[in-house]
Design goal:
The chain is of the alpha+beta class. It contains nine helices and 22 strands. The strands form six sheets. A nine-stranded mixed β-sheet has the order 1-2-5-6-19-10-22-8-7, with helices on one face. It has a four-stranded antiparallel β-sheet with strand order 14-15-13-18. A three-stranded antiparallel β-sheet has the order 9-20-12.
């Protein structure tokens, strides 16, 4: 058994799912992060029962088994189960029973693969994608995210995850005045979009696919529903979002969370049209301090967990609890995603 696969079996077992431990997991405030589930009744591997058995188990044990783990840990990795294709993954997402969230207002270039399944960010493999909550820059964001590894990377390409409330705690301890101003004013996100998608950029989604229309008036209506203003240019549009809260209150877990894309925007929203330093400011328009952004980035890296992908892995993330990112990689790598309300 590979070292990065399963370190030990642990915890309780159901008829289909069993807790497991990985060497990359961290204990955060007494909770294993992320939670890991493997097939019960033997070592995990390709198969783990039939796909229909897996889907039936998801339906029957989601509320009793998977969701309590998700509430406690913030993320659950399902490893060793028989999902192998995009169609299998689409069926698995359906089995969980969450409503789909249309990808309106997000920045990443993505392509629909099948049903509710999209490619994850299609930016070049040598580019890292910084930590962020999915669609934190708009008021309507997914509550849950699914990622699926269809083709595991030759090397690299992990999707590191980090607990948002712990980032808030560390930032508030180290930079209380900054956090106080952030909580008071929120953030403004600014992004310049072309018409079509630019796959060379991690924020290269054009306004046609961002607003799911080629009609400027429809785009303006949809932007207004997001609380976003549009400023049209000769070859595109500047979007201005905010002020929008950068710290939210997680009512389920009763704690503050670092719910923003501040580091991602300040360090990663860079392409031919966008200057990352101008991409995000305090809600009063004042610039963010570069040294604090740098320290926040270091905290995110220090506290994160990065489990190497294996084919068939399904990672379920509570977007209220966890930020995620992407490391650079050597192809091939195909990780798919689905967003849920």
């Amino acid at each position: 058994m590979e070292e990065n696969q399963i370190l030990q079996m642990a915890g309780s077992t159901s008829s289909f799912f069993q807790d497991a431990r990985l060497p990359q997991q961290r204990d955060v405030e007494g909770v294993a992060f992320p939670a890991v589930l493997v097939p019960s009744g033997g070592p995990p591997g390709p198969g783990g029962g039939s796909i229909d058995e897996f889907l039936a188990a998801v339906r029957s044990e989601r509320a009793s088994r998977v969701e309590p783990l998700l509430r406690e840990a913030g993320a659950v990795l399902l490893r060793g189960f028989p999902a192998r294709t995009a169609a299998d993954f689409d069926r698995a997402v359906e089995a969980f029973g969450y409503d789909e969230l249309p990808y309106v207002g997000g920045a990443a270039p993505r392509t629909n693969v099948v049903g509710r399944v999209f490619t994850a960010n299609e930016s070049p493999p040598d580019q890292k994608i910084p930590f962020h909550h999915e669609m934190a820059q708009v008021p309507t964001f997914p509550a849950k995210l699914f990622f699926f590894c269809e083709v595991e990377p030759k090397s690299g390409g992990e999707t590191p995850i980090v607990l948002s409330h712990y980032v808030y705690k560390r930032m508030n301890e180290k930079f209380p005045e900054f956090v106080e101003k952030l909580e008071k004013h929120g953030l403004i996100y600014t992004r310049v979009l072309g018409e079509g998608d630019d796959p060379s950029s991690p924020i290269g989604r054009g306004w046609h696919s961002t607003f799911l229309t080629k009609d400027k008036s429809v785009a303006e209506e949809r932007a207004a529903k997001l609380g976003m203003t549009l400023e049209w240019t000769d070859d595109g549009v500047k979007t201005v979002m905010g002020p929008i809260p950068a710290v939210k209150w997680d009512e389920v877990r009763v704690r503050k969370i670092w719910f923003n894309s501040m580091v991602a925007a300040y360090t990663g929203w860079k392409d031919a049209r966008n200057d990352p330093v101008k991409a995000v400011t305090f809600g009063d328009g004042s610039p963010l301090p570069a040294d604090v952004i740098d320290e926040c980035g270091k905290i995110l890296e220090e506290e994160c967990v990065a489990v190497p992908w294996q084919q068939g892995d399904i990672l379920l993330i509570d977007n209220w609890a966890v930020l995620h990112s992407r490391r650079s990689f050597e192809p091939p790598r195909r990780v798919l995603a689905s967003l849920c309300k």
